[in-house]
Design brief:
- It is a single chain.
- The chain is α+β, with helices and mostly antiparallel strands.
- About 25% of the residues lie in helices and about 10% in strands.
- The chain has helices at about 30-35, 55, 60-65, 90-95, 100-105, 115-125, 160-165, 170, 185, 205-210, and strands at about 5-10, 15-20, 40, 50, 75, 85.
- Strands 1-2 form a two-stranded antiparallel sheet. The chain has a two-stranded antiparallel sheet with strand order 3-4. A two-stranded antiparallel ribbon has the order 5-6.
- A hairpin with an 8-residue loop joins strand 5 and strand 6 (about 85).
- It is elongated and about 70 Å long.
């Protein structure tokens, strides 16, 4: 299961909408397995971290999800006996010589799959994007390509713009000022932003899980 977490960072004149893909990274040190009371395991052939469906019937896997740095186990309700599910690495497809379905279906071809050593040779050894948990917690079997530098499409002096906007009424009578001082828009009160300027890895309930995983249009 792939979840796209959305959150807002920065303030005017340089706000950003961040989209962070979260899935099971089938860690080499899967701390979720230790917290699952035998209901999860790491299989040997591909290194996939899996849920044992028979044992999971009688065990609440929320502690395992809390232990996972990325909170990638999903539940179908807030009940203590909710059905738990997670990415299986499409192990059934691997057995057929096929790639995981996320790799095949990504329209931007942003995903790749293979032995970790091969991926590191192709893409480097970066295992943590901005705002992600420390990879030393669970040693995720993943590598990322670093974002490229952001380009200013229309160059302008941001500091000057911040200083001028409160004076609009002085420059053009009848047009209201947007704020009284630059700090009114550059300093954000906690809780004002929809996604609170940080990604949600461990949602308190299904509603928060959904709210952190979709835009207003989705």
């Amino acid at each position: 299961m792939l979840r796209l977490v959305e959150y807002e960072k920065g303030t005017w004149p340089a706000p950003r909408i961040k989209v962070l893909p979260l899935m099971c990274y089938h860690c080499q040190n899967p701390v979720c397995v230790d917290a699952a009371n035998g209901a999860m395991f790491k299989e040997d052939k591909y290194g996939a971290v899996l849920i044992d469906p028979n044992k999971a019937k009688s065990i609440d896997l929320r502690k395992a999800n809390d232990a996972c740095p990325y909170g990638v186990i999903s539940f179908d309700s807030d009940a203590t006996d909710a059905y738990a599910t997670k990415c299986t690495m499409c192990i059934d497809r691997l057995e057929q010589g096929l790639n995981p379905i996320c790799v095949e279906s990504c329209p931007m071809r942003a995903w790749d799959f293979g032995p970790l050593e091969d991926l590191q040779k192709k893409y480097g050894t970066l295992r943590q994007l901005e705002d992600m948990p420390d990879p030393s917690i669970s040693d995720p079997a993943v590598v990322f390509k670093q974002d490229g530098p952001k380009k200013q499409i229309i160059p302008y002096d941001a500091a000057q713009a911040l200083a001028l906007m409160p004076k609009r009424s002085q420059i053009t009578p009848g047009i209201p000022d947007l704020y009284s001082k630059p700090s009114d828009v550059t300093e954000i009160t906690p809780g004002l932003l929809k996604f609170d300027a940080k990604p949600v890895f461990h949602a308190k309930n299904v509603k928060e899980f959904l709210d952190s995983s979709r835009t207003d249009e989705a």
